[in-house]
Amino acid sequence: MTKPEIDFQGGDAPTELQITDVVVGEGAEAVPGAKVEVHYLGVEFDSGEEFDSSWSRGESIDFPLQGLIQGWQDGIPGMRVGGRRQLVIPPHLAYGPAGGGHRLSGKTLIFVIDLLGVG
Fold first, then answer.
1. Is residue 22 part of a domain?
2. pTM for the whole thing?
3. Counted domains in the chain
4. What's residue 62's pLDDT?
């Protein structure tokens, strides 16, 4: 797969996690608490500006789901290897309300995640 592009959303940010399968994979399924290998792109909902991308670093990343923001913990299980999924994550499932101490606190985030492997 190639680096995804995320269209500017416009309108009001959702208040709940939105999960959209762009490509449904046919490999092993990610389960809660699994270790996953992913490529991902993250942008801010309001501005459409990219804030993080494994694509830009030129390598995938792997980590256990339980160490990630709640939106990833809730949004990746059920995904299959080879799939691409878009998550729109409201602040309470990301980095908390504005003033929470993280540069993305108070922001709704959009991630496109390619699941490359589960462990």
1. yes
2. 0.94
3. 1
4. 95
